[in-house]
């Protein structure tokens, strides 16, 4: 790849991706709304991706070997991007999410079998419905259609569907596991939530029936997106480190690092902590592995992330 466009993603693992592309010798163009400047050595275009005319004007007559879309959340955004970049690139990679597999967000997704990792075939973008008339162009109105979790998952599913059908370019959707950054790179606060509670002796809210989930670190997901942009395969690919982990397994690792005991409080029907799930949809990464991507194992990198989160919490 000599010329790559990245839409959004100027922080967290997106920034790492941009820096990796730049350092590989590629010419990198970043498009965002201007709120976060890209790293040095990057061409920066400012546009609102929801404004088709402005996005097309910002891109101009540029062409790219690949486009990596970090911030596509709706079929409305996907349709705009498909039109704008249809004649400007031959390969398009969308950053998606494992939440597309969550059976709680769609009646069309049957419950997964516990202990059997979910594969890409569980959600087929080519056949996923995109109902006309849903007001995805108006976030306020969509709040009245779906709840927050369903809105996020369904928006991603329908965006994948729009890109897949009659696509003018080779399309890949990377369904990412829960991303944990190492140290100050992780701004989500999810790992910090557990560290803070265990250090303070506060209980962690968990479901009575707890299922493991999938994780990946920020370096690894950036590396996989880089790889996917330069590869030749198409379709969906799951991105997760080897080794599922439950919320109690995560807390056990934190407890071991802090020398404290993790206490739990059961919630029945209420809101639990971020990585507590009462249903199974942990992913299998077999397709990406068969295509040649070498994943790490969660327990190889997670202790370092926990140790740094503890140090940051303590101010050391």
Brief summary of the model shown:
35% of the residues lie in helices and 16% in strands.
Notable traits:
316 residues, alpha/beta, Rossmann fold, seven-stranded parallel beta sheet, two-stranded parallel ribbon, 10 helices, 11 strands, 35% helix
Task: Give a description of the structure.
- By secondary structure, this protein is an alpha/beta fold.
- It has one domain (3-181, 214-241, 283-298): Rossmann fold (3-Layer(aba) Sandwich), CATH 3.40.50.
- The protein contains ten helices and eleven strands.
- The protein has helices spanning 13-23, 52-59, 75-85, 139-142, 148-164, 190-200, 218-230, 247-258, 286-291, 298-314; strands spanning 3-7, 27-32, 43-46, 66-69, 91-97, 170-176, 178-180, 204-207, 215-217, 235-239, 264-267.
- β1 (3-7), α1 (13-23) and β2 form a beta-alpha-beta unit.
- The chain starts with a strand and ends with a helix.
- The model has no long low-confidence stretch (mean pLDDT 93).
Between the first and last Cα atoms, what is the distance in angstroms? 41 Å
Oligomer: single chain
CATH top level?
Answer: Alpha Beta
Look at the structure and name the CATH superfamily: NAD(P)-binding Rossmann-like Domain
Please give the CATH architecture. Answer: 3-Layer(aba) Sandwich
Low-confidence stretches: none
Shape descriptor reads globular
Gyration radius (Cα, Å) is: 20 Å
- Total separate domains: 1
Number of helical regions? 10
* Extended strand count: 11
What proportion of the residues is helical, as a percent range?
A: 25-40%
